[in-house]
Amino acid sequence: MNYFEFVCTTSSAEIAEILTIHFSNIGFESFVDTDTGFNAYIQEVLYNSETEPAIQSLQTKYPFQYKVQYIKNQNWNKQWEENFSPINVDNKCYVRASFHPPIEGLKYDIIINPKMSFGTAHHETTFMVISQLIECDVKNKTVCDMGCGTSVLAILASKMGAVSVLAIDTDDWAVENSIENINTNNTSGVVVKKGDAQLLVGKTFHIILANINRNVLLSDMEKYIQSLDKKGVLILSGFFDVDIILIETKAKQFGMDLLNTKLKNKWAMLCFIKNI
Questions:
Q1: Are domains 3-71 and 123-274 of this chain identical in fold?
Q2: Rounded Cα gap, residues 120 and 113, in angstroms
Q3: CATH of 3-71, one of 3.20.20.70, 3.30.830.10, 3.40.50.720, 3.30.70.100
Q4: Among 61, 123, 169, 180, who pairs with 174 as Cys (CB 3.0-4.6 Å)?
């Protein structure tokens, strides 16, 4: 998978935060704060003739400049290897690369070599979903990880005692990388499939995780909830705090009750339980 990197410069941290929300809605999936603004990344397959005009329209409202760089797979991987550091989630889960040593005392140790896939726990949304999942009763449950990326969440669910885990992603790189990470962690009971929410039809799960983006969540939420067991748990992230009301309202339309909310640097996570 190739990416376009948009290097954005602005003199205001507040404007940078606002812009990341707009960029996310355009289709950008990850952001890195810099001293002069932020870098935003969008998959080549999602970059189209409407992307730059949408950004240029933002320039009429907000003072910022940008430049675009095309990033091939190998460049992205090299950048990750040079900058990746382990992540400790709530002193319970340690997410590291294979070239990092483990640390003692944490319940879950997960090795992730993400290549081009999203999901190392560095991003706020992955961190929050891991934090929430650790609080759930997963033992002997069936779990689905939608938009699995590296399958870090699927691997954690398996390590927590899930009886079976289905990991789904639309991207070939993610599927390939998920299988590699599952094997690296000697994880059993995890099946990886390429596809989207249509793969859920006819299946039932106790827990569904979906760390994607706002528009996909809104589009596929009904399918998620239809595939939840009675009193099933739905954990959603990949959106900003300004979208909480929109996501919560949609979930409640399909019979979900809000259990918990987590916030981290303007990103949000919502945990629901099925009440019908």
A1: no
A2: 8
A3: 3.30.70.100
A4: 169
Q: Which pLDDT tens digit goes with each residue over 87-101?
A: 899 999 999 988 888
Please state at what angle helix 152-159 crosses helix 124-134, rounded to 10 degrees: 10
DSSP string, the chain: --EEEEEEE-S-HHHHHHHHHHHHHHT--EEEEETTEEEEEEEGGG--TTHHHHHHHHHTTS--EEEEEEE-HHHHHHHHHHH---EEETTTEEEE-TTSPP-TT-SEEEE---TT-S-SS-SHHHHHHHHHHHTS--TT-EEEEET-TT-HHHHHHHHTT-SEEEEEES-HHHHHHHHHHHHHTT--SEEEEE--GGGGTT--EEEEEEES-HHHHHHHHHHHHHTEEEEEEEEEEEEEGGGHHHHHHHHHHTTEEEEEEEEETTEEEEEEEE--
Structure tokens at 39: 């870098």
pLDDT at 116 over 70: no
Closest residue by Cα to residue 119 from 50, 173, 188:
173
Ordered by start, the domain boundaries in the chain are 3-71, 123-274
123-274 classified as CATH 3.40.605.10: no
Q: Token digits for 207?
A: 């827990």
Average pLDDT score over residue span 9-24: 88
User: For the packed helices 51-59 and 13-26, what is the interaxial angle rounded to 10 degrees?
Assistant: 150
Tell if the pTM clears 0.85, that is, is over it.
no
d(CA 201, CA 185): 29
